[in-house]
Amino acid sequence: MAQARSTLLLIGATQGVGESVIEGLMTQAYSRPLAIHAISRMPRQPSRSENNPLTIQWHAHDLKHSAIDLSADCVISAGPVGLLLQQLEHWGEKHKPRAVWALSSASPDFKSESLDVREREQMKDIERAEQALMQHCQRYDINFQLYKTTMLYGRGDRNVNRLADLMARFRWFPVTGNGQRAPVHVADVAALLQGQLMASLSDEKIQTGTWRLQGGESFGYRVMLKRIAKARDLKVRLVRLPAAPLVGLLHLVHATGHLKDIKAQMLARQAMDLTVDDSEARAQLHWAPGPFRP
């Protein structure tokens, strides 16, 4: 008798973590068939693994506009937490999944008291959405795991790649501080998600909770810049500058219409330690991230 096909809804399938999840699942050995419903605003062709009973059905759909009308046994969300919550509320009790994994950011740990009002509100919005998501899963008895990460990199990220672009363009880089960093590679997060998904599909009860995740090593901001430059074969001069005059210069540059994605608060945060305690994830989820490899 053929086994029933399990279904996975993957939100944020074209984000770095989402792409890594798909890549990992395509090479996974399965004990039962698995169908992936991958959500993307850009349509893609369905695909099938040659060696395993896995299929991927791409859905061109923007969850910002509406929830999608399909059901799934499990959900992995590499997109905004609020969109995941809307999808679960759309399903309600009738189509609830048995397990949900959500990817979020550790940024509220560092930015909740930002001098920028809009940024403070963004952090509050993230925390409110996370809390509402946890309450929803508790109400409907859904196994739920929330991962809050430090800076993600890999697969066309907008973090490490943006720093590399700036260093390649100007050949010098202003440094206002040397706070600790522990970037985490998208493939490491995807491997954790894949392992937890496989456990759930094997009828193991996954542990519910919230975990903070960071990369396998921590280092100062200057070291991060130097390692990015070395990996891209860039010769760049790091120039130590006080934050206040640099912020003033940035405002002038913004007035010319340039570097609008570089915010003043980013310069001030160079001196902050943006690391987290991921010991619980290591002990409870066997989280074992690799070293920084830009």
Describe the fold and architecture.
It is a single chain. This protein has ten helices and 14 strands. The chain has a domain at 6-155 and 183-215 and 275-284: NAD(P)-binding Rossmann-like Domain (Rossmann fold, 3-Layer(aba) Sandwich), CATH 3.40.50.720. The protein has helices spanning 16-26, 81-91, 107-111, 117-139, 160-170, 186-201, 221-231, 243-255, 264-268, 279-284; strands at residues 6-11, 34-40, 47-48, 54-60, 74-77, 99-105, 143-149, 152-153, 172-175, 180-181, 184-185, 209-213, 219-220, 237-240. The termini are far apart. The protein has 294 residues and is of the alpha/beta class. Helix 1 (16-26) crosses helix 6 (186-201). The strands form four sheets. It has an eight-stranded mixed beta sheet with strand order 3-4-2-1-5-6-7-12, with helices on both faces. It has a two-stranded parallel sheet with strand order 8-11.
Individual helix count: 10
How many strand elements? 14
Distance between the termini: 48 Å
Spatially, the strands of the biggest sheet line up as: 3-4-2-1-5-6-7-12
- The fraction of residues assigned to DSSP E strands is 15-25%
CATH class of the domain at 6-155 and 183-215 and 275-284: Alpha Beta
Q: What is the CATH superfamily of the domain at 6-155 and 183-215 and 275-284?
A: NAD(P)-binding Rossmann-like Domain
